[in-house]
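[Q] Does anyone have a clean structure-token version of this?
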Amino acid sequence: MRGKKIIKIILISLLGIFIIADLGGGAYLFNYAFKKGGYSSTTGNTELKGNNKWFDQQNQKIWTEKSKDGLTLKARYLPAKKKTNKTVLVIHGYGSASKYMGSFVKIFHKAGYNVLAPDNRSFGMSGGQYAGYGWKDRNDIIEWIDRVNKLNGKNSEIGMYGISMGAATVMYTLGKHPKNVKWAIEDCGYSTISGELNYQLKEMFNLPSFPLVQTAAIYSRIFAGYNFYAANTKNTLKKSHVPLFLIHGSKDTFVPTDNIYTNYKNANNPKKMWIVKGAGHGKAYSIEKAKYIEETTAFAAKYFK
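[A] Here you go.
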């Protein structure tokens, strides 16, 4: 009996250690991946050069909105040189901000469109302590779309462009039937937040996803206010018939190239896919600059009236 009691105490102690380690590990993962000042703080804050410097020097206006959960959100609005009812939302990736989207802003502005480049929650000028990974952000994007529609009236036409987390934001937003959105382009977006976290945990730390990601999901619900397991293009793209152009690099090791096949499968027609040979994460534009500009502007022109 004494031996069984000792074994029981040991097992309970081990279980307690496991739970404490899991809670601590899950908290670390959540703070590292979601909290402002975590991993995202190492990926931004670069000097403005080239097209980013060009964007900064344009006569842009700063728009402000309040999110439904009380955050102050900011966006950069660059009106077209010639008045138009056509506006393109350009949405940045993880660890970035609107001010670093100059190349893509320039593509659509040069094509004759107004451009609105929001800062997603916890990035750039926008408030918030936790990244929305596109899922929480989709509600904020709907608010920006409503603002554009009010500005341009009943003839408003909107296109959406996003890269990386911004691409996921676009695909998740399409599931909410955004008003007057005529087309969307996603470049290297992930299909699920959980899948991307699972992959990064293995890639960056060589750790299994279970149970750390599941524990991080609990922290996400409590502190960030959303269930990231709900984020899945299978559930959002199937609700949309907005024409979708999907782009991905063949050598993407941050958001694996397999994601484009999943997203393409999940999307309804009309849809178009382009895998850029040799491009790493977010590098399709730099690898195939001329063709990238040609393909994206042609897609926009096709579906704008």
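[Q] Thanks! Anything notable?
[A] The chain has two domains: 1-33+194-227, 49-192+231-303.
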